[in-house]
Amino acid sequence: MGMFAEVIAIGPFSRDIVNHLEYSEIYYKETQEGAIINLTLFGIGEGSTVGLEFAKCLGISNGWDFNQHKIDNSKINEEALREFVSRYTEYDEDAEHLLALKEKGFEFHFAPNG
Hints:
Distance between the termini: 6 Å
Structural class: alpha+beta
Shape: globular
């Protein structure tokens, strides 16, 4: 079995990021500004080759090195990520969400499974 990879995003809620979150706006109606929320992005299931390529876009040299799973936002290679989603277009929206949430101070955690 190959690597299944996803990203867990954790950060402060604000009304201007609702379109980047997992659920429709109605579910966040009573969410207070600044409340810490989480969501899951990507869900790469094509196998280890694609999962490890994706990890490199996030600045992770070895997707199975648990010391690297808290992503350093400054190491996210936006150009490589955009190239990745140009080939795997099903992840394009997730990449846009990740980049928008990065600007809002979210932290990200790489989660491999396999």
